[in-house]
Design a protein that fits this description.
28 strands; 4 domains; mainly beta; Immunoglobulin-like; five-stranded mixed sheet; single chain
Length: 398
């Protein structure tokens, strides 16, 4: 019998085919009949007959999460049901395996959404020349929705999993939630020979949803939690044209121990679409990611002051102009910015104006590969952003 344990973790091998496979693989004594153990672990022996008892240990089946401090202790007891002879005990202590390859991912996934994570096939970098078929694997969190997919063209893995991470940026305990999984690869279907182990440390971003307008710059802040040690950090944006930092935050800054830190950034959406921009706070010395933010916004369309309907040859560059009057009753340097620099180019984006002065603004429509219709904006503002206007270009390329 097996005491104080889950039989999915520690068990006797009763399957005849598995028993035969293990005894031959490791040159163990071979019984006359591989079916001598019943499913309820009863053994019938002839007088003076000895047989090997094969114990299978699969500790990942009952570990709900990865924790370096977890130790599991189990015991196996063998006794004779027909007399009161002394039983034999075997005590087993299981410690967590240390993964050979460690992966860390940051995912923005709503609760209970099936997600895919792609990572480079680590076996590409293995110098071993022996071909192996790695058809047998299992996760420590045994979930029917967790599986490995292989892209035959790129040899990249896709780790598919059902993630139950909930993230609430207003709750500090949920700012970054960990979901650790171990992935074990075996060379045989009985999982007797472990080939390699991967650890997946899956985290969720702190997600921030902002209300914005196309063509208008907005200042926002991000809060970095206190660090117990001094760090030299730097901030990086996945879309620096849309989300960028004030000058004093563009370079490296020093975190003082036990003090929170707040940075300012500017969000400047130029199209009416869904934006998802990742901001990373990185320790420059160690390359450790200290904090991640996912900035989401679906900006409102701009209020259009001027509409220009334009016909243009798609394979030619076209020079055009429009008249614009300074709406301010004071001298100002006005900024002119294209929403799409692949369509509209401005030769001069900073132009001085006297109070209520009118000027012609020159711009160019760039060559396109094919005829068709397109839209683009020219945004106009002053340095203080005291006013914002938009010119809509409706272009028909022929």
């Amino acid at each position: 019998m097996i005491n104080d344990s889950d039989e999915n973790v520690v068990s006797l091998i009763t399957d005849p085919e598995e028993f035969e496979y293990i005894t031959k693989k490791y040159n163990l004594s071979i019984p006359e009949d591989y079916s001598f153990i019943s499913d309820d672990y009863q053994i019938i022996l002839k007088p003076n007959q000895s047989v090997p008892l094969l114990i299978k240990i699969l500790c990942y089946d009952n570990i709900t999460g990865y924790d370096d401090n977890i130790n599991n202790k189990y015991s196996i007891c063998v006794y004779n049901k027909n007399d009161n002879s002394r039983p034999y005990y075997m005590n087993i202590e299981i410690t967590n395996v240390f993964p050979i390859i460690d992966f860390e991912f940051y995912q923005n996934v709503p609760q209970k959404k099936l997600s895919h994570i792609k990572f480079i096939n680590p076996f590409k970098f293995n110098n071993e020349k022996t071909q192996r078929l790695l058809n047998y694997y299992t996760f420590n969190n045994d979930d029917s929705t967790s599986e490995i997919l292989l892209d035959s063209k790129t040899n990249n893995f896709y780790f598919k999993y059902n993630d139950n991470i909930e993230n609430n940026s207003n709750n500090e305990d949920n700012i970054i939630n960990k979901n650790n999984r171990l992935l074990f690869f075996y060379l045989d279907k009985y999982k007797s020979e472990l080939f390699t182990t991967f650890k997946f440390n899956i985290k969720s971003y702190e997600t921030i949803q902002l209300s914005t307008d196309v063509g208008i710059r907005s200042k926002n802040t991000l809060n970095i939690p206190p660090s117990t040690i001094s760090r030299t950090i730097q901030f990086f944006s996945s879309d620096p044209d849309t989300l960028y930092f004030d000058d004093k935050y563009k370079e490296q800054v020093i975190l003082i121990p036990n003090y929170p830190y707040t940075i300012e950034y500017i969000l400047y959406p130029k199209e009416s679409k869904n934006y998802e921009i990742l901001v990373n706070c990185v320790d420059i010395s160690t390359n450790e990611v200290i904090k991640n933010f996912l900035i989401k916004t679906n900006p409102n369309k701009p209020a259009v002051n001027i509409i220009l309907n334009i016909n243009a040859l798609y394979n030619n560059e076209t020079e055009l102009k429009f008249e614009f009057a300074n709406p301010l009753n004071q001298w100002a340097i006005l900024k002119f910015d294209s929403s799409n620099k692949k369509i509209v180019a401005l030769d001069n984006d900073l132009i001085p104006f006297n109070p209520e002065e009118s000027k012609y603004i020159n711009f160019r429509l760039l060559k396109q590969r094919n005829p068709g219709k397109a839209e683009a904006y020219i945004f106009i503002s002053d340095n203080e952003e005291s006013f914002n206007q938009a010119v809509l270009l409706k272009i028909d390329y022929y």
